[in-house]
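Margin note: ligand = magnesium ion.
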Amino acid sequence: AKKSEKLNSVQLYDKALHPAIELRAALENDLAFALQANQFLLYYQLQVDQAQRPIGAEVLLRWQHPTLGFVPPSEFIPIAEESGLIVSIGGWVLKQACLQLKAWEHSPDTNPLTLSVNVSALQFSQPDFVETVTNILQESGCNPSYLRLELTESLIVKNIDDVIDKIKVLKTLGITFSLDDFGIGQSSLSVLKRLPLDELKIDKSFIDDILHNNCDKFIVQTIINMGNNLGHHVIAEGVELKQQKSLLQKLGCNAYQGYLFCKPLPLQEFSAKLQNIYIHI
Ligand code: C2E
Ligand code: MG
Ligand code: MG
Ligand code: MG
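Resulting structure:
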């Protein structure tokens, strides 16, 4: 009886764990071929100013898996980071974004828009990151002043001097920098003081309850004041309600991104949305 009980528990244990482990292994395996198999595409999410005029878009990566369908970035980005694949994938994203910027130069709807591209810590810390970006800029011929790189606090904790050096060089080319998901990481104010940033992006988690949680409201107010005083543009992510936008505006927030204005869209739909906005302005 004892033996069968033990077997049973082993079986249960296996059943519970195997699918998750296998799925992850399968994803990691498939991710290695996704780039050459053309399974990635870019979505664009609108960013607007206080008057709700378009000012830019964030580039968001999508993976269309041949059998699983769309795999969310929250599932495959961590795997891409752990396996190192994020370096080549991120390079591809950057190249596509720069080609898009170049293509947009000719359209009055898109000409002044900034494109924000997420850069993973591993990607940014590659010794040849500056060289890679420089090459991509040259190959695409885009205007670097419309390219914004979004970094996260996880990067900054690691090797602050290297990060500052790279940002400084890339800024001389005209590229601007945003600190993404600001407020949830571990970067200290002394680090923030030294970083030559252009923008702070307030994390969605502070925006979610901003209407009902005074603590969140005060934190957001403080981030906006600090950001503005440091001369940075401040943008809020994850704005879903009109009342959230009004409150953020009252607190002095410069720009907004969220479902209230537009969900991330594939290129054609994004362009159509922009045209529609301009028709109504
Ligand atoms: P993120 O950079 O903070 O991007 C914002 C995320 O919030 C996006 O999720 C976007 O779809 C979502 N979002 C925006 N507005 C709203 C809203 O009003 N409500 C809700 N519920 N969500 C909203 P997404 O596209 O799933 O991307 C998740 C994360 O994956 C990104 O967070 C970023 O960290 C990472 N990621 C996406 N694309 C790339 C990429 O090309 N490279 C790297 N390294 N990371 C990427
Ligand atoms: Mg981002
Ligand atoms: Mg973000
Ligand atoms: Mg976020």
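The beta strands are 40-49, 54-65, 69-71, 114-118, 147-152, 176-182, 199-202, 233-237, 255-257, 265-266.
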